[in-house]
Amino acid sequence: MDGEHTINLYSIHPGTQRSKWVAIDADYDGCMKDLLQLRYELKQDSIQAALGQSRRGGHLWIFAETPLLAADCRIYIYNLALRLGIPVQGGGLREGIEVFPKQDTLEGKSFGNGIRGPLGVHRRVRRRYWFIEAEQNPERQMVYLGKIAKVTEDQIKTFTVGMTMPEAYQPPPPVVYTPGPVHHSDGEIRREFRILDYVRPRTKDRRNYWAQCPSCAHANTDKSQDNLAIQIANPRFYKCWAGCTKEDVRAALGQPVPSRRFA
Ligand SMILES: [Zn+2]
Question: Once rounded to an integer, what is the mean pLDDT over residues 110-130?
């Protein structure tokens, strides 16, 4: 709370794939208007959400009576946002709200994505960001949060009956393409490097798959896991939008670009 440490909160319990809260993070121009509209629409479903400021925008928090399936929470919020015309990151959009939990399920030993916990003094700018509906002191803010009605599993189940994740946000199906063998000048035949054997796209749009860039991942910089664009029509073409070179990407995968050999 005093800004000595930053606490990141990870929503999904890996054992149950459930979450006790949902947070909607927005930091683009005009995002507060979208968060207020979301809050209003949630209220029409009898869901109370706490709107707090953040350094560049705001966070909307929803608390659960009992842990809810992350997938259900996401289906509900994504469909609500799209119905309102509020942009959601991914699915081809670089800008829009981000929804935590950010995965339907966690795999292996991953934690998913974290969001900065509310009310602590921000270490970079040395100030605290408040929930807008309560007096600006920590005690009043905690009292306010304690009074927020919690959403139940029945509510979420009711609101998501028959709904699925919007198509643009579903993980893309596995891709099948079969490059021919490459004959090298030294007579050797090597199998062509296939980026999709190594990275798993998280989203896609009309032209590209978007995946975590392996080189960025090594540097721990591609938190949103979508820096690497891979052309759907021809996955031989891929590009890291953070500027890693093809050589960086290949090296990070332990598949360095073979150096040219001259006969
Ligand atoms: Zn990169």
Answer: 91
Q: How far is the CA of 213 from the centre of ligand 1 (A)?
A: 5
Residue 253: what are its φ and ψ, rounded to 5°?
-90, 5
CA dihedral 80, 35, 53, 13 (to 10 degrees): 0
How far, in Å, from the CA of 220 to the mean position of ligand 1?
A: 10
Q: Which domains does the chain have, with CATH numbers?
A: 8-169 (3.30.70), 181-252 (no CATH)
Rg of the chain's alpha carbons, rounded to an integer?
22
Confidence of residue 100 (pLDDT cuts 50, 70, 90): very high
As a whole number of angstroms, the distance between CA 34 and CA 94 comes to: 16
Residue 57 phi/psi, 5° resolution?
180, -120
Say yes or no to pLDDT of 263 above 50. Answer: no
Least confident span in 55-69, 125-139, 180-194: 180-194
Tokens of 139: 């005690």
Q: Ion ligand 1 — residues with CB under 5 Å? A: 213, 215-216, 227, 240, 242, 244
pLDDT value at position 179? Answer: 58
Interval between CA 92 and ligand 1 midpoint (Å): 18
Ligand 1 centre distance from Cα of residue 224 (Å): 12
pLDDT of residue 191 exceeding 90, the answer is no
